[in-house]
Design a protein that fits this description.
Elements: E1 2-6, H1 12-19, E2 33-35, E3 49-50, H2 58-63, E4 69-79, E5 82-95, E6 101-108, H3 116-126, E7 134-142, E8 147-154, E9 160-163, E10 166-169, E11 171-177, E12 184-189, H4 196-204, E13 210-213, H5 219-248, H6 254-272, H7 282-297, H8 306-318, H9 329-337, H10 340-353, H11 361-370
Parallel strand pairs: 1-4, 2-3
Antiparallel strand pairs: 2-7, 4-5, 5-6, 7-8, 8-11, 9-10, 11-12, 12-13
Helix pairs in contact: 3-5, 5-8, 6-7, 6-11, 7-8, 8-10
Length: 372
């Protein structure tokens, strides 16, 4: 649906009056922020609407006006009593539940709408088949219906899940704007979003993943793709938890730590056709000893389970000598997260989880003994 919309700037004094009470949370009288029942879900600004049950539903969002219709309108300029249409531009207007029209943005004709309901459906798709506990803890509009956000805690109420003693980010946040300020963004975060402050903090913070959909082209298909991609990330995270629990439950003797690590390098050497008749080379031996030391004495490790060995590998290729002793810090980080070190961490985890070490540990012990 298209509506005719004429650009008529407000007088400066009127603008000042309208904006004087908009705080850093950016919730205006046109906006609504909803949370489920429960003290844990209240917000710092106390401007939220508490819904009737402990679970937020799509019906709650619709009932509270979180799905305004976003309309496209023609943009015209009035000059000396004459009206001229700007053919390469269009206006975006939100029609609220009471039927009122609220101007949002002037965009190019290439701009494609991503409605708030589309964002909700993308979230639903992302959570399909997830067995980890999760709860939608906050949803709302901001900036006079110009922004929309959703925040889901995956795991505990703080948004996190544990693997042994390690806590991983668990808030899944979605946000978009109809004002040209941001695309649709889906990401994990340590921050629960409840206002503009927390939306900005989440955007700037650390992420394991951060996916975007531009307001261009077939946004319905692109949102579906985003939902499927995040779903696969969450399913993989679920598999990761199960795998790490498996490693934590598998004890190892101290004398087996080096042979298990050596088995990984043995498989790589065999695949590369490397002659090991004289034992492992100096560089490989240094890798094995460095990882073994971290498995026993690294951060939180005691050298008692396969999980300690995996943590030793992770630490070695994230902060340790596995990234290169003389390598600049920036290059170490790149190698750890995107380069060869990242590949080795993933491969080693698979080696342990798939029990590949069982078939090579005896041969690795023999090769280690050659060097004495």
């Amino acid at each position: 649906m298209r509506v005719s919309y004429s650009l008529k700037p407000l007088p400066k004094q009127q603008l000042k009056i309208e904006n004087k009470n908009i705080m850093s949370h950016c919730k205006t009288e046109k906006d609504t922020i909803i949370v489920p029942q429960g003290k844990a879900y209240r917000t710092w600004h106390n401007l939220e609407t508490v819904c009737a049950t402990d679970r937020l539903t799509k019906a709650d969002a619709r009932r509270n006006g979180l799905f305004p219709e976003i309309l496209e309108g023609a943009v015209t300029a009035s000059v000396g009593g004459r009206h001229v249409t700007l053919p390469n531009h269009k206006s975006l207007v939100a029609r609220s539940m009471d039927g009122e029209l609220h101007p949002l943005h002037i965009s190019s004709q290439r701009y494609s709408i991503i409605s708030n309901e589309m964002v909700w459906d993308t979230l639903s798709l992302a959570l399909r088949g997830i067995d980890m506990p999760y709860k939608l803890t906050c949803a709302g509009t901001l900036c006079g219906l110009g922004w929309f956000f959703l925040s889901v805690a995956i795991g505990d109420e703080d948004g996190g899940f544990m693997v042994g003693d390690d806590k991983y980010l668990g808030n899944l946040n979605f946000m978009t704007s109809h004002t040209g300020e941001i695309t649709l963004v889906g990401m994990d975060s340590a921050v629960r979003t409840v206002c503009m402050n927390t939306c900005q903090a989440s955007l700037r913070g650390s992420h394991s993943f951060k996916l975007k959909v531009q307001h261009r082209g077939n946004t319905v298909a692109k949102c579906e793709d985003m939902g499927n991609q995040i779903n696969e990330v969450l399913l993989e995270r679920q598999r990761f938890i199960e795998a790490m629990d498996q490693l934590r439950a598998t004890p190892v003797a101290d004398t087996d730590i080096a042979p298990i690590i050596g088995g990984y390098f043995l498989k790589a050497a065999v695949n590369a056709g490397t002659d090991l008749s004289a034992g492992f080379g100096t560089r490989t031996s240094n890798h094995i000893n460095g990882i073994a030391d971290l498995a026993r004495h690294g951060r939180g490790n005691r050298g008692e389970t396969l999980y300690d060995i995996f943590n030793g590998v992770t630490e070695y290729y994230t902060h340790g000598d596995g990234t290169g002793i003389s390598t600049p810090v920036g290059q170490q980080v790149f190698s750890s997260e995107f380069g060869g070190a990242a590949t080795r961490k993933v491969d080693f985890g698979r080696y342990l989880v798939d029990n590949d070490h069982l078939s090579v540990v005896d041969e690795a012990t023999r090769v280690l003994e050659i060097a004495g």
